[in-house]
Amino acid sequence: AFKAAVLIQRWYRRYVARLEMRRRCTWRIFQSIEYACEQDQIKLHNFFSYLMDHFTPSSSRERDFISRMFISGESFKEAELEKYCDYESMEVPDSYTGPRLSFPLLPDHATALLEAFKQKQQLHARYVLNLLHETRKHLKQLPNISHVSTCYSEEVTVCGDLHGQLDDLFLIFYKNGLPSPSKSYVFNGDFVDRGKQSLEILIVLFTFLLIYPKEVHLNRGNHEDHMVNLRYGFCVGLIAMSRVHGKKILKMIQNVFCWLPLATLIDQKVLIVHGGISDTTDLDMLEKIQRNKFISVLRAKKRKESNRNVEIQEINGESKVEADPAGNEAAPSLSPQPRLAQAPSTANRLEFSRWVRQTVQEQIEWCRRLVDISESEEEELTYSSVVSLTDLDGPCWTRQEEWKQASDILWSDPMPQEGCRVNTVRGGGCYFGPDVTGKILEKYNLQFLIRSHECKQEGYEFCHNRKVLTIFSASNYYEIGSNRGAYVKLGPDLIPHFVQYQANKTAHTLTMTQRQGFPVALISRVEESAFRALREKLFAHTSALISAFKAYDKDNTGRITLSNWATAVESVLHLGLPWRMLRPQLVRSTADGMLQYKSWLDDLAVEQRSQEHIQSSLLEVIYRNRSNLETIFRIIDRDHSGLISFEEFHQTWKLFSSHMNIELTDDSINDLVRSIDFNKDGNIDFNEFLEAFRLVKQSQ
């Protein structure tokens, strides 16, 4: 009996260890593909940013049009935004049966919204715009760093990423209770994208924010960013949901996002940011920057920054004018301080009055440019601008330094190694080690840091000697059963208490017999989904893989060792996966340890062609580039109509041709755009865009 018990115990431990290894490998696959996608997005955005920085428009009209297309977050004056998003002129039809809002909001309005969303009802666009308008007014009065105290409530609940998963938010409220004067919440960014109910989550959170402004606090995440929303579904879903008013709602949401606070402090001891910190994180600077300038933190405004530096140097008496190789003096980027014209005689009062007005106006305009204030920006004083004005004698930070502060706290991740380095995996922010965490906590007398930004299998995870806590609230993020969601509660003692959950209707309907085998079945289901995504990734790089395999096949036998297969695959995909461990799931076992790589790639192609009836080489290219093509299409489609107008295409192609040094006449560009417009409706839809891509590929 004793030997039998030991035997069963060994078998069980090996079985659990194998399950855990499968779970970890599956997790690595999902996470590597997700981060690679984020990196592609930043590379694409940097490419367009490079084009913008090196493009010389031929006219002011062309410059304005391209700036509106590619500089995220079109600038609006206060009055222009109010006029564009005029909700008061919208009529709510009598047939509308959804919830209705009136301001100031009451708790009953929030309850009605929750019930309506549970019944799959939508809020009318008039009320959505009204809510966004009031939310924006409230957010503008908030500091960059919100301050929360446990003295006024029994505890503070901190929630991580929700990513458009409304069921998770419902479950949090069901388990923990709705926000109230005695129950404070901090929602730590990434409310939108990926999930299908991003707008509903925003409506619920903004409603509670206005009802309980002292108890509900929202931090900005890296997905509260217009350029990120273009790729991950929020923009497309919103426009599809509301064809008539979707553009107005989207424009207003973009403006609301840039006013979200960047961090929260609980009892001056616990810092809450979405991503993390870096070795240059400065909470004093973070408190004073004008956060609304960063409508997208993916790009710093380099042109304005360089112009501002020129003028600051001129104020200090330094000359920025340099000689070019030919010996001619190059003109500075911006004109220096205007010289005062000789004053006319005071005897002529009219002439003297005109001179005074002109001189004052020139000085005002020069000062505007110096402090980087454009006429399109709002003149109303906000909390951030007041803080900046009260500290004029303090240090003068450049726009690049301010941008790095915002970028680091929204995009960074912790790492177990010491130091701080660029986050090349995501493409934004940095990796910070335990030494960086210790220095920042000591500098500001903090106990620990709470962040989100990373999906964790258990919904939360400690690192850096329990000084950094990651909290993630979107359960089933990659696949049903892939991870739990969690939130953390902090009382006056600031000891974290966790609540985990899984908003999975499938699990709740299982019988007791089914539940006994549920973990194994669930792992198999998640694992299958992960390997399906990985095979798609492999197929999308078929051509590159063949070249890599041939480098190891010197004799052109069509066969390579399994070890060389693993090395070659990593050299192409750069996912950092344990390919030798994953090999049994991807490659059939061979007796001699050699792989017929051409037949293996053919099997991948057959698997993908069973889903898409397109030739293999073309399908490979589309699989590899579809996400980028969709994002490029949405960037060019400036008005988010789902169609590229001839003018939008014309200006974009001028940008590309300038970059590639190709001389194209306007007639040539017009002929090109008409050839892509297959149905001759005067616009290019996404199918026509892809079809043109397909035709070019086939001709090559």
TrEMBL record:
PROSITE patterns: EF_HAND_1, EF_HAND_2, IQ, SER_THR_PHOSPHATASE. Residues 540-575, 624-659, 664-699 form the EF-hand domain. This is Serine/threonine-protein phosphatase. SMART domains: EFh (SM00054), PP2Ac (SM00156). Its cofactor is Mn(2+). One of its GO terms (biological process) is negative regulation of MAPK cascade. PANTHER family: SERINE/THREONINE-PROTEIN PHOSPHATASE 5-RELATED (PTHR45668), SERINE_THREONINE-PROTEIN PHOSPHATASE WITH EF-HANDS 2 (PTHR45668:SF2).
